[in-house]
Design a protein that fits this description.
Layout lengths: L4 E2 L23 E2 L13 E7 L4 H14 L6 E7 L5 H14 L3 H13 L8 H8 L6 H8 L2 H16 L4 E2 L1 E4 L3 E3 L1 H4 L4 H18 L1
Parallel strand pairs: 1-5, 3-4
Antiparallel strand pairs: 2-7, 3-6, 6-7
Length: about 210
Amino acid sequence: MLKPLIFVLAGLALPGLATAQNLVEGEHYEVLPEPVETQVGEGQIEVTEAFWFGCPHCYNLQEHVTSWYETLDDDVSVVHLPATMGGDWNRHAQVFYAAEALGIEDALHADLFHAIHEQGRRLTGEDEIAEFFSDYGVSEEEARQALSSFAVKSQVNQANARMRAMRLMGVPALMVDGRYLVTPSSAGSLANMPQIAATLVEKIREERKE
């Protein structure tokens, strides 16, 4: 079983990482022994953000990745991967996929982080989740049905399998093209994670030209 470990920050920032030549494999990022199949279209570069809504580091990372996501070119697609490490982690993964099934995930993603970390809400009970969802134009009954649906449960299981394939033992993490893993420890800080991931995106573009 994966342990519910949250990566500890290494502390020191690594400024000036502008090119792939400045990055050191095994120091700034890891390369998976076996690439994980991506979920994006042909020609796209996948950036997977692995997270848990209850993780404070994941919450603090949002301001950095959100601003970066807004600058991405059309050949880059972001995939959110909710961590599935048991208990509340799996429950929040259900919340993510249920919201996605109902078409409200984009609208409530940031709000759910805020509710947990700024308002002290757990958002693990069915009634509390259904009430939260109702603020986004769905009925509480629709929310309950989505949470308990076979499709959502299957997606949680698939997320668990994908995390194992990526060898993720903690969050937050950014996986680029199913091959390159960036963590707070490897990046040196949360703020550096998007910078290193962006450089890896450029690295992949160059590789594909060869």
